[in-house]
């Protein structure tokens, strides 16, 4: 799927493909891991990481260390940001997006 003759860098091509999948509803919460992108596209880990970073830099996704890269959604309620990781961890004390406040420890 990567066109190495294209003037568009491979990481930008991968980011564009991921955006298409997001727009088509194929990706709804968690983005593919670096390992799965390297395998699917036959690219280096650094190329896969740069593709995901581009989506993060554009405000489309966020990284949750140890969990992965998730879409950032804008709620229809006042443009409030809903984080994909909160949907995975929702209601779990001490987990980001759960019931504990940021920086607090679970009891």
Report on the architecture of this protein.
It is a single chain. The protein is an alpha+beta fold. It has a domain at 10-74: Winged helix-like DNA-binding domain superfamily/Winged helix DNA-binding domain (Arc Repressor Mutant, subunit A). 38% of the residues lie in helices and 13% in strands. It has helices at 10-23, 34-41, 45-57, 84-89, and strands at 61-64, 68-74, 81-83. A three-stranded antiparallel sheet has the order 1-2-3. β2 (68-74) and β3 (81-83) form a beta hairpin. 19% of the residues are buried.
Strand-helix topology:
Elements: H1 10-23, H2 34-41, H3 45-57, E1 61-64, E2 68-74, E3 81-83, H4 84-89
Antiparallel strand pairs: 1-2, 2-3
Helix pairs in contact: 1-3, 2-3
Short synopsis of the structure:
By secondary structure, the chain is an alpha+beta fold. 38% of the residues lie in helices and 13% in strands. The protein starts with 9 loop residues before the first helix and ends in an 18-residue tail after the last helix.
* Broad CATH class of the domain at 10-74: Mainly Alpha
Classify the fold: give the CATH topology of the domain at 10-74: Arc Repressor Mutant, subunit A
Low-pLDDT residue spans? 76-83, 85-107
End-to-end separation in angstroms reads 49 Å
Feature tags:
107 residues; 13% strand; alpha+beta; 38% helix; Arc Repressor Mutant, subunit A; 4 helices
């Amino acid at each position: 799927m990567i066109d190495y003759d294209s003037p568009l860098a491979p990481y930008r091509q991968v980011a564009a493909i991921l955006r298409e999948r997001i727009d088509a509803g194929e990706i709804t919460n968690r983005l593919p891991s670096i390992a799965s992108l390297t395998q699917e596209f036959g690219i280096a880990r650094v190329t896969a990481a740069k593709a995901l970073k581009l989506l993060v830099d554009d405000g489309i996704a966020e990284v949750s260390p140890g969990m992965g890269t998730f879409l950032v959604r804008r709620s229809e309620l006042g443009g409030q940001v809903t984080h994909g990781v909160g949907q995975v961890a929702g209601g779990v004390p001490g987990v980001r997006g759960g019931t504990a406040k940021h920086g607090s420890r679970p009891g």
